[in-house]
Design goal:
- The structure is a single chain.
- Helix content is about 45%, strand content about 10%.
- By secondary structure, the protein is of the alpha/beta class.
- Strands 2-1-3-4-8-7 form a 6-stranded parallel beta sheet, with helices on both faces.
- Helix 1 packs antiparallel against helix 3 (about 70-75), helix 1 packs across helix 11 (about 285-305) and helix 5 packs parallel to helix 7.
- The longest helix has 24 residues, at about 285-305.
- The relative contact order is 0.18.
- The model has no long low-confidence stretch (mean pLDDT about 95).
């Protein structure tokens, strides 16, 4: 398959609600930061379809390693927004007791092994996790999320090469959002698509429209099925765009306004809303109710996180192994 040759899944309202939840969560996080009530964080606004589409294809057997834009992946996997936000604020009710912040969250019960603040750090660990599953005879696969910036680092090539040579069950998901911190992708690589690099390692690869949640879901299901059955790696590139800056706060003065505007016209959430309404898969009243439900959920999450206590002094050395 070449880029975007995917038969999309039927449109599902649940995917829209999850995307709305991710967007509302990250906008709430940015608002708290702007008000001086939360530390800086990296958002994935504009990339919601990628997170939801991939997670739609997974089951409870699978393990996940993610990167510094992890909130969307966590929420799409089923994590509680209250506990994610509490973790970002350093509160004891967070998933890691307030010790990880936004850049190191893990949710063991959901199979989310780690969030890596090191660009490409999760790529270095994915083959090892997959090898352990292979040796223990587990049926699940390992899914590793990374961006085009990490794909331009040596660790990506080392990771996918060893996964190919050892036939490891890893689904590599490159969320190509066009930006590598404050540097545009075009300044660091000639090719438009990371998926073209997979052939060099004998890895089956595909680029999908990362702003179309149904297309991502369909492509991810095919990729997951391949990895689960063949026990070999697969490289899936979701071609998308980062609508907010690298890290809050960020004025995006380095971004071409015309490029940003053109991608805003393809906002995955607004586009999906229109599609669902046109297909009569959801009514205007149901959409309004959904948005109200999401707003209430995130407002409650913010209140929960703000009111939660900080860890006690006695917790300073708990869960510390070195």
């Amino acid at each position: 398959m070449t880029a975007f040759e995917v038969t999309a899944e039927p449109r599902v309202a649940q995917s829209l609600e999850t995307m709305l939840t991710i967007r509302a969560f990250e906008e709430q996080s940015a608002a708290l930061q702007a008000a001086g009530k939360s530390p800086s964080m990296c958002t994935s606004v504009g990339q919601e379809a990628s997170a939801v589409g991939v997670m739609n294809a997974l089951d409870e057997r699978d393990q996940i390693l993610t990167n510094h834009r992890s909130a969307g992946h966590l929420i799409a996997r089923g994590a509680d927004p209250r506990r994610i936000l509490a973790e970002i604020l350093g509160k004891s009710t967070g998933y890691c007791g307030g010790k990880s912040g936004s850049l190191h969250i893990s949710v063991k019960e959901l199979g989310v092994l780690l969030t890596s603040t090191i660009v490409g750090g999760e790529l270095s660990l994915a083959p090892g996790v997959a090898l352990s599953r292979q040796m223990l005879g587990g049926e699940g696969i390992v899914v590793v999320f990374f961006g085009d910036g990490a794909a331009s680092e040596g660790i990506f090539h080392e990771s996918i090469n060893i996964a190919a040579m050892w036939n490891l069950p890893v689904l590599y998901v490159c969320e190509n959002n066009q930006w590598q911190a404050y540097v545009h992708r075009k300044e660091t690589m000639h090719a438009d698509h990371i998926s073209t690099w997979g052939a060099s390692y004998g890895v089956k690869s595909l680029t999908v429209d990362g702003n179309d949640v149904d297309a991502v879901t369909a492509a991810a299901k095919d990729a997951v099925s391949y990895v689960r059955t063949e026990r070999k790696p697969f490289l899936l590139e979701t071609y998308t765009y980062r609508l907010r800056g690298h890290m809050e706060p960020d004025t995006q003065q380095y971004v071409d306004p015309k490029e940003l505007d053109s991608w805003k016209q393809r906002d995955p959430i607004a586009t999906y809303e229109k599609q669902l309404l046109a297909d009569r898969a959801i009514t205007p009243a149901e959409l309004d109710a959904m948005k109200a439900r999401v707003r209430a959920k995130i407002e409650e999450a913010a209140q929960y996180a703000m009111e939660s206590p900080y860890p006690s002094f006695q917790e300073l050395t708990t869960n510390v192994y070195a």
